[in-house]
């Protein structure tokens, strides 16, 4: 008895302590990543300043920064950003639209499913990079080949996830809808679509990540502008500082795009959390 | 004429599942009549086919032989004349409580104002007027099932099929739900088929208690309940207790005793 009472006294947090714990929890959510980020940056600076590794192989943070400023001042960075984001955006929009449409069809219409699903399974394992040579032959090194590679990659992923989501629409929802006098169209629009929406959004989020991946793959071989092209160009001049700068920019772009899509998804599929 | 609404007749219905070689007969020449406005409880061991019978009347499953009619017309698929209340509530999580009820009213092509008014009235009827704008995930199990009941009655369904609707609720909530269901049913006078495996629930609610045998399901006993509601099983000398013992005896497996199990 005595032991448990003592135990209670120890574990029950006092109000001021609780408030502090709450504050520090919020602090750690932002603070800890900052600490680890600064630590990596410091470590990188120390390695750079020590001269142990050649600048040509592993540039110091300040070199990467000045390379970024340089690319900005001569105007290539803005141009490359616009070009690459445009390609990723257009390719993504085409791929996602077609992917959702196709997924809804194969998920809903048995005949279309039987006809097309073998292709889904055959095409999915082919890496996007392997398509680049074909795309260049078909569309040249202009925008066409980039749109093709990006939209194709996004299309397959979004198709697969949408199709998958359609399989998970609970039978009870469909039965309830029909018993409540819903027409096929209303059942589709207000029951099937929302029920599959979480999966569709998961596919779209994956599609965004793959859009950047396949875009850079397409730009690396056979392009005359864009972040991927600039990366390739930097290799030819052995400008590792520029390469690092471009890699970091790609990382930030991808993370921001993912965050935006995630936020939009959570807004639209608001009933899924909790 | 009004009394002629909601008569369900199940005639020699056979339902099989699976392909020809490995077909399992779920219902074998089942006959059942639900008189308009009556409350029938269907009770039987799990897997006996009572849910299958309900699904057939709902139009979700088509019988291989025999026929099911509503007021003389054969049931060929789900329709708003036959409302269904599922154990898992089946509320749409992307609609609010009000939105769920409005979903069932869309078929009437009402004006938006009228549709909202009718949905609100239906929610008030089950005591959830204050929760109209909440989403199902924000409601308790009992509240969800109240919305589901309101949703089905609001469409003016002639027949209401309930598949163990209170099976997931705690005992206290069940008692409240029984009272609420009887009140709403009295007001709307729909024909109710209430599937349950809880004998007490059947005895407290129904006009007719039908007992189904092990699969393939056959209706083996019919009790016409004349006792006035509200009923209580605790009253000593009540014939309800006798019927209860009788049904429990029927439901007890006779072939082999269950092995002792630590639970």
Model description:
- The complex is a heterodimer of chains A (274) and B (263).
- By secondary structure, chain A is mainly α.
- Chain A has two domains: 2-50; 61-272, MetI-like (MetI-like fold).
- In chain A, 82% of the residues lie in helices and 0% in strands.
- Chain A is built from eleven helices and no strands.
- In chain A, helix 4 (76-108) runs parallel beside helix 7 (143-167), helix 4 (76-108) packs antiparallel against helix 9 and helix 6 packs across helix 7 (143-167).
- Chain A is flat, with a radius of gyration of 25 Å.
- The two termini of chain A are 38 Å apart.
- Mean pLDDT of chain A is 88; it is low at 1-14.
- Chain B starts with 7 loop residues before the first strand and ends in a 12-residue tail after the last helix.
- With 263 residues, chain B is an alpha/beta fold.
- Chain B has helices at 50-58, 97-105, 112-125, 141-154, 171-188, 199-205, 239-251, and strands at 8-17, 24-34, 39-43, 65-70, 73-74, 82-85, 159-163, 191-196, 208-212, 219-224.
- Chain B is built from seven helices and ten strands.
- In chain B, the strands form two sheets. In chain B, strands 6-7-8-3-9-10 form a six-stranded mixed β-sheet, with helices on both faces.
- The interface between A and B is medium-sized, with 17 and 25 residues.
């Amino acid at each position: 008895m005595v032991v448990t009472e003592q135990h209670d006294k120890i574990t029950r947090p006092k109000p001021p302590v609780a408030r502090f714990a709450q504050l520090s929890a919020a602090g750690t959510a932002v603070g800890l990543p900052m600490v680890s980020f600064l630590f990596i940056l410091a470590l990188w600076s120390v390695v750079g300043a020590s001269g142990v590794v050649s600048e040509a192989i592993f540039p110091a943070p300040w070199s990467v920064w000045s390379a970024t400023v340089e690319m900005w001042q001569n105007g290539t960075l803005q141009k490359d950003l616009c070009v690459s984001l445009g390609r990723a955006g257009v390719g993504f929009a085409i791929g996602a639209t077609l992917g959702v449409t196709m997924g809804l069809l194969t998920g809903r219409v048995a005949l279309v499913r039987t006809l097309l699903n073998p292709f889904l399974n055959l095409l999915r394992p082919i890496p996007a990079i392997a398509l680049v040579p074909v795309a260049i032959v078909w569309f040249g090194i202009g925008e066409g080949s980039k749109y093709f590679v990006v939209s194709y990659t996004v299309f397959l992923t979004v198709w697969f996830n949408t199709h998958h989501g359609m399989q998970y629409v609970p039978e009870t929802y469909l039965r309830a809808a029909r018993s409540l006098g819903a027409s096929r169209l209303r059942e589709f629009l207000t029951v099937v679509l929302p029920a599959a929406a979480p999966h569709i959004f998961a596919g779209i989020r994956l599609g965004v990540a793959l859009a950047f991946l396949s875009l850079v793959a397409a730009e690396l071989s056979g392009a005359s502008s864009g972040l991927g092209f600039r990366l390739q160009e930097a290799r030819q001049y052995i400008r590792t500082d520029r390469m690092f700068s471009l890699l970091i920019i790609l990382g930030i772009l991808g993370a921001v795009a993912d965050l935006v899509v995630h936020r939009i998804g959570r807004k639209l599929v608001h009933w899924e959390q909790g | 004429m009004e009394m002629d609404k909601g008569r369900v007749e199940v005639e020699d219905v056979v339902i099989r599942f699976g392909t020809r070689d490995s077909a399992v007969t779920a219902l074998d020449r089942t006959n059942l009549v639900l008189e308009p406005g009556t409350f029938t409880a269907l009770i039987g061991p799990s897997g006996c086919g009572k849910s299958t019978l309900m699904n057939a009347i709902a139009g979700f499953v088509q019988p291989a032989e025999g026929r099911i009619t509503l007021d003389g017309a054969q049931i060929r698929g789900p329709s708003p004349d036959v409302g269904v209340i599922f154990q898992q509530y089946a509320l749409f999580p992307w609609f609010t409580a009000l939105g769920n009820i409005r979903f069932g009213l869309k078929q009437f092509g009402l004006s938006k104002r009228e549709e909202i008014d009718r949905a609100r009235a239906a929610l008030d009827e089950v005591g959830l007027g204050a929760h109209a704008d909440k989403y199902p995930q924000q409601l308790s199990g009992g509240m969800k099932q109240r919305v589901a009941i309101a949703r089905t009655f609001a469409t003016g369904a002639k027949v209401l099929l309930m598949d163990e609707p209170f099976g997931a609720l705690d005992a206290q909530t069940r008692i409240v739900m029984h009272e609420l269901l009887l009140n709403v049913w009295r007001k709307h006078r729909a024909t109710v088929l209430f599937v349950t495996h809880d004998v007490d629930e059947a005895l407290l609610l129904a006009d007719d208690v039908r007992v189904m045998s092990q699969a393939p399901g056959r209706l083996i006993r019919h009790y016409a309940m004349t006792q006035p509601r509200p009923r209580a099983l605790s009253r000593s000398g009540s014939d309800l207790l006798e019927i209860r013992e009788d049904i429990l005896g029927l439901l007890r497996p006779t072939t082999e005793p269950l092995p002792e199990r630590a639970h």
